[in-house]
Amino acid sequence: MAPGVIAYKFLDDGAAGPFTGFRWPVGEWVDAGGVDPCLEGIHACRLRDLPVWIGRELWEIELDGALVEQARKVVAPRGRLTRRIDAWNGQVAREFGRFCARRTRERVGYVPVLAGFVADVERFVAADRIPIAGFAAARAAELRDGPAAYEEERLAQANWLAERLGLKAGDPG
Hints:
Layout: E1 6-11, E2 30-31, E3 42-44, E4 57-64, E5 68-69, E6 74-76, E7 78-84, H1 90-108, H2 116-126, H3 130-145, H4 147-165
Helix pairs in contact: 1-2, 1-3, 1-4, 2-3, 3-4
């Protein structure tokens, strides 16, 4: 990713960081100082990473400075929220959960040792535990078809989110 790139960030209500509680000022640059993934820096995700980081609010974020790309996130020394993705809401989150449940049912519902994943994913969706529903769907795929199936499932989830949220192919990710 090049400096000045737009990425995504899931936050709690009120644009609060889920791990730090930091309240993001919309449109203002936030300088983290350095970049040390999981410890320091502005953490964000690419389009393909969206299912891993699902939260209450989805924001577009502009990142600046030397970026570190990791398997499931990007980290930069500076960032600013540019706009909230209003299409992401509780209803869409539940639709996403049902999408994950349907895919799990189709993939492993007939495999006795894995069929329990279907009920697990459905239970997570019913409890509004959407992030774990997506993870469980990917894990069921992995257990049935191997590690590549986990990644394929997460990519299918990311594609569903991108389409449903109106995030186009030219967007980050």
